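>> received
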Amino acid sequence: MTRVAKRFRWEGAHRLPWHTGGCQHLHGHSYTMMVEVAGTPDERGMLIDFQEIKRLVHPLVQAWDHATLVAADDTELRQALERLEMKHAVLPYDTTSENLCRYVAEHLAHEGSETFRQHHITTIRVRVQETETCYAEVEQAVTEGATPLRLVGAMQE
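>> returned
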């Protein structure tokens, strides 16, 4: 099995309104994300071109950079951001690092299913780091016919 990875970064804000340790307040991070795929390389020894990974991930990073990530059920923050006409992205669940990993992995499994099948990629691993010392990671098998994400709301700029 061969693994390749590409790193992405963005600046963003979020809050976890149910949290009691400080993260309930709107705050920002310099996020970094590592997207790794694994599978069987072709006869020349290449698994996938890094530009293919970038093509699949870049729309998310572009939408999230200098935006507020907000959970669909955080209506107070959503209304404030809409009223102020602030760039934000609405996610179907809380904006924890774990859920961001899950969201990206599901996005890739759906949007990249054909590309991954062509390149014999079997596994996606996503690591989101929100501080220098903290990260979350999700690993997901690539399956045929992945269910599309149900996006809530619209990404705003």
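>> The longest helix spans residues 50-64.
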